[in-house]
Amino acid sequence: MNFSHVVVVMGVAGTGKSTIGALVAERVGVSYAEGDDFHPEANVSKMAGGEPLSDADRWPWLDRVGAWARERGDRGGVVSCSALKRVYRDRLREAAPGVVFLHLAGERELIEARMGAREGHFMPVALLDSQFAALESLGADEAGVTVGVDGTPEEVAERAAGALRKL
Question: What is the distance, to the nearest Å, from the Cα of residue 101 to the centroid of all Cα atoms in its chain?
Answer without folding.
Answer: 8
